């Protein structure tokens, strides 16, 4: 067995904290990327992550040429490689992460919308507005033709309002309900909201090219809008949809709901009520600015504490694109980028197609036995590709860290090379024991590459690696 | 083994194993069970109408597609129940949504809970057997999804399990050995939950069990190699005859989305399926497992009554099948009328709710109380012998 000093894991480092930030605010970082972030420092990195430039990536032309079907995409299946590439290569990981967050919260299912172009536009809407004021985001999504169609606002008329959008806006998008199904609003509020959104709809437009898919755009039809007096959450007036959103974002319930969902997505699968309350306070004081809440999360001692590292089960998207970014596989949009969404689907998350308006069931529910096999096999296979530049760098960095590595040093060097990764003490001990079967490693020997790769593969097969 | 015995449902003989075959894409009911004596059928299907030798009459009104000869033989032996006009209120003609509805048994709201996942939970509440339900295919169909229920999803039985991409048995075994140790619950596993470790243990055990099945399996039956559903059913036969406690099997066949060139494609799909079923049933008989097994086949919807010149578009009312020695064969329900007044927006109108079929399977064949799985009571069809 290991001696007491050997069992003791390395003390937490700045690199480990930076890796924690990048796993949560993005999809992890390679060891080299971490070094660059560390040069800027933690706070500057948080600011840079929170303020992506919103410009079209320089490689967009290349992506369009490689993934021709993603241009004016017909179906979500045609569209998704476009996002797969951005997820794999974006230099603004929080922009993609926040899009993933809202994609699961303001969920529009491809099963009904079945419109690739519109789904991609929605993801872009989340990139553009996902970090800004919550009010703007709700105003924009309420003018999103895909959302209007998905939640039947299409069929909501002055004379016969359809309550679907009004209800989900309150229940799933902003104020929420508690475990008993009760909300801080009544059925009458749902009806009033539905009336305020009458006349907001989507209409088909001409295809962008011959035999192309029919596109859609938002329309407001004043003749079909109920302009009468409504009472909503205690206020009375001739409200339209924007007025309803104004009132919603003032509600305490909304501040708490948004704070809780951000906490669950970015911090931990188990909510800390005091912290959620503090973040709700930031929502109120910042005018509901998501960026301000995330800043308050990432800069808090609570977030930085070791007790919160690896406390979230990785979603399939986090696992797939986290691994792909770690191994740094892609230089150009190779065709097998298009396979990545399929792996995520096998693991239970089909991008551009949340299972329902509730989004995905997250946390521990991500991992059933079939999904675990897919997760482990995907990660193990990727780490086994020694032609991937990221894997090559990991091997080289371990080999150049010493002429002869003890099993303990070998395990710790591998974990560090994977991006200042950690595993629990017990897992580490088993890995060291396993590495010790063949004694210490002569890093100049012929077997060195194989032994390093085998250990990298063992690390991604651990239960610890399922968490971020 | 069987828990949650309810009151008021008829306990039959030994509970059966259920093999569900999903006909994905919308199987054309009218060209599967053909109303060959109804002139309207030919009026609506000038191109796609099947006649003469293309139909195997079951009675003086309807007949099977001629590609279904092996199924017809089983029908004549009284083993095939055909459920006519099956569907649900306010039909949805989207593949995905309609399939979701069949998977969750929940037509009015989105749900992430599958009816067979829930059934698995009832059959094995503690998750004692990691292979109580086995899906043949990659990724879990929502029918089998349920919180806390682990279902093995097998692409290829021989290649199933962890680390199958690693070349070299020694390397793979060494890594599997590490995994077996790391996934062992110990009370000091750091941030990893008991639940996740249990899932890992279940997956490792399940993979061991399933990988052994092909080695134990011997049969004189040959399944055609170039027939995907036959290969899935062969895998099912291997697991079923290994008798490892699997109660629910799931396989997928398709695509039945025959908007174009239907005469060729629909015929091919049923030919493949019939041959596969024929092999499978012989195999079960050879292994003395035919009495314990029931097959259910369904599709998310039927197709339009009128053809479009080369195929048919998405419709609603469809047909489901139950097959087995334990099944009371015959035609269940009325063939929906084709007269314009009896149609539903150009489709045949459903007259049997699909949840009636589920309720019948659950109570009469699996010995599971239907209301433990379905949200309300549904009138059952007496489909068990």
Which value, in Å, is the CA radius of gyration of chain A? 24 Å
- Spatial extent as radius of gyration of chain B: 21 Å
Helix content of chain B: 25-40%
CATH first level of chain B: Alpha Beta
Q: Look at the structure and give the mean pLDDT of chain A.
A: 93
**Number of DSSP helical runs of chain A:** 25
With helices defined by DSSP (H or I, 4 residues minimum), what is the helix count of chain B? 9
Ranges of chain B where pLDDT stays below 50 over 5 or more residues in a row are 1-8
Regions with little confidence, pLDDT below 50 for 5+ residues of chain A? none
Fold-level CATH name of chain B: Alkaline Phosphatase, subunit A
Number of strands of chain B: 12
Describe the protein in words.
The complex is a heterodimer of chains A (468) and B (385). Chain A has 468 residues and is mainly alpha-helical. Chain A has 25 helices and six strands. Chain A has helices at 4-7, 14-25, 31-40, 42-50, 60-66, 76-89, 93-105, 110-113, 116-129, 134-141, 145-150, 164-174, 187-196, 241-249, 252-266, 273-285, 290-298, 301-304, 316-327, 340-346, 369-383, 389-399, 407-417, 425-435, 448-460; strands at residues 200-205, 215-220, 230-232, 235-237, 404-405, 441-442. In chain A, helix 6 (76-89) crosses helix 19 (316-327), helix 12 (164-174) crosses helix 13 (187-196) and helix 19 runs antiparallel to helix 20 (340-346). The longest helix of chain A is centred in the middle third of the chain and has 15 residues, at 252-266. The model of chain A has no long low-confidence stretch (mean pLDDT 93). Chain B has a single domain (17-157, 219-372), classed as 3-Layer(aba) Sandwich (Alkaline Phosphatase, subunit A). Chain B has helices spanning 39-44, 69-76, 95-104, 115-123, 169-182, 194-216, 228-242, 262-286, 354-365, and strands spanning 17-24, 33-34, 55-57, 63-65, 80-87, 133-136, 152-154, 248-254, 293-299, 318-323, 330-332, 352-353. In chain B, a hairpin with a 5-residue loop joins strand 3 (55-57) and strand 4 (63-65). In chain B, helix 6 crosses helix 7 and helix 7 (228-242) runs parallel beside helix 8 (262-286). Residues 1-8 of chain B have low confidence and may be disordered. Chains A and B meet through helix 8, helix 21, helix 24 and helix 25 of A and helix 3, helix 5 and helix 6 of B.
């Amino acid at each position: 067995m290991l001696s007491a000093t050997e069992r003791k894991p390395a003390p937490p480092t700045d690199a480990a904290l930076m890796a924690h930030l990048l796993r949560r605010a993005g999809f992890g970082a390679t060891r080299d990327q971490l070094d660059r972030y560390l040069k800027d420092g933690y706070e500057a990195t948080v600011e840079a992550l929170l303020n992506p430039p919103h410009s079209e990536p320089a490689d967009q032309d290349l992506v369009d040429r490689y993934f021709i079907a993603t241009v004016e995409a017909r179906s979500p299946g045609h569209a998704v490689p476009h996002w797969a590439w951005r997820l794999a290569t974006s230099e603004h990981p929080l922009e993609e992460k926040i899009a993933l967050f809202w994609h699961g919260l303001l969920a529009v299912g491809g099963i009904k919308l079945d419109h690739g172009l519109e789904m991609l536009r929605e993801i872009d809407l989340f990139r553009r507005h996902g970090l800004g004021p919550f009010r703007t985001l709700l105003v924009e999504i309420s003018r999103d033709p895909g959302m209007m169609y998905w939640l039947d606002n299409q069929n909501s008329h002055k004379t016969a309002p359809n309550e679907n959008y009004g209800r989900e806006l309150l229940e799933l998008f902003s104020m929420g309900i508690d475990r008993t199904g009760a909300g801080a609003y009544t059925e009458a509020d749902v009806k009033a909201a539905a009336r305020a959104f009458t006349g907001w709809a989507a209409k088909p437009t001409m295809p962008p090219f011959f035999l192309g898919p029919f596109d859609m755009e938002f329309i407001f039809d004043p003749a079909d809008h109920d302009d009468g007096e409504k009472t909503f959450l205690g206020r009375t007036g001739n409200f339209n949809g924007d007025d309803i959103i104004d009132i919603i974002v003032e509600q305490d319930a909304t501040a708490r709901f948004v704070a809780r969902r951000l906490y669950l997505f970015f911090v931990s699968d188990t909510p800390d009520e005091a912290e959620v309350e503090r973040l709700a306070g930031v929502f109120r004081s910042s005018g509901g600015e998501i960026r301000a809440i995330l800043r308050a999360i990432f800069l808090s001692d609570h977030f930085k504490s070791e007790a919160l590292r690896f406390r979230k089960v990785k979603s399939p998207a986090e696992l797939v694109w986290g691994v792909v970014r770690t191994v740094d596989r892609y230089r150009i949009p190779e065709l097998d980028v298009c396979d990545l969404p399929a792996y995520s689907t096998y693991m239970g998350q089909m991008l551009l197609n949340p299972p329902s308006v509730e989004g995905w069931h997250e946390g521990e529910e991500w991992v059933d036995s079939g999904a675990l096999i897919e997760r482990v096999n995907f990660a193990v296979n990727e780490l086994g590709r020694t032609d991937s530049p990221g894997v090559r760098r990991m091997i080289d960095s371990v080999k150049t860290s010493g002429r002869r590595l003890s099993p303990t040093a070998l395990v710790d060097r591998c974990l560090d090379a994977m991006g200042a990764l950690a595993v629990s003490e017990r897992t580490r001990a088993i890995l060291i024991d396993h590495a010790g079967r063949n004694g210490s490693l002569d890093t100049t020997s012929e077997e060195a590459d194989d032994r390093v790769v085998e250990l990298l593969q063992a690390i991604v097969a651990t239960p610890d690696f399922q968490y971020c | 083994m069987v828990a949650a015995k309810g009151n008021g449902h008829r306990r039959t003989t030994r509970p059966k194993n259920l093999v569900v075959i999903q006909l994905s894409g919308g199987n054309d009911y009218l060209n599967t069970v053909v109303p060959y004596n109804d002139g309207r059928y030919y009026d609506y299907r000038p191109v796609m109408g099947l006649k003469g030798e293309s139909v195997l009459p079951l009675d003086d009104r309807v007949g099977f597609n001629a590609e279904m000869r092996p199924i017809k033989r089983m029908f004549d032996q009284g083993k095939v129940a055909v459920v006519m006009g099956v569907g649900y209120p306010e039909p949805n003609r989207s593949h995905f949504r309609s399939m979701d509805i069949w998977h969750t048994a929940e037509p009015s709201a989105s749900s992430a809970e599958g009816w067979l996942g829930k059934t698995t939970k009832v059959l094995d509440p503690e998750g004692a057997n990691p292979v109580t339900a086995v899906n043949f295919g990659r990724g879990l169909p929502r029918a089998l999804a349920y919180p806390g229920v682990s279902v093995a999803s097998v692409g290829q039985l021989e290649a199933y399990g962890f680390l199958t991409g690693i070349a070299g048995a020694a390397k793979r075994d060494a890594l599997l050995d590490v995994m077996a140790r790391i996934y062992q619950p110990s009370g000091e596993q750091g941030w990893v939950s008991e639940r996740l470790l249990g899932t890992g243990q279940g997956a490792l055990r399940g993979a061991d069990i399933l990988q052994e099945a092909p080695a134990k399996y011997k049969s004189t039956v040959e399944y055609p190699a170039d027939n995907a559903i036959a290969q899935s059913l062969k895998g099912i036969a291997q697991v079923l005859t290994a008798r490892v406690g699997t109660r629910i099997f799931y396989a997928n066949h398709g695509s039945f989305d025959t908007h174009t060139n239907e005469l060729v494609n629909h015929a091919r799909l049923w030919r493949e399926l019939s041959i596969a079923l024929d092999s499978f049933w012989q195999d079960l008989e050879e292994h003395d497992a035919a009495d314990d097994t029931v097959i259910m086949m369904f599709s998310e919807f039927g197709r339009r009554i009128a053809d479009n010149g080369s195929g048919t578009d998405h419709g609603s009312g469809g047909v489901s099948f139950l097959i087995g020695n334990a099944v009371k064969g015959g035609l269940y329900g009325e063939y929906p009328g084709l007269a314009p007044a009896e149609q539903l927006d150009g489709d045949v109108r459903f007259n049997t709710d699909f949840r009636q079929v589920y309720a019948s399977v659950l109570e009469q064949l699996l010995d599971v109380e239907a209301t433990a799985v379905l949200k309300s009571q549904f009138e059952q069809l007496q489909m068990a012998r």
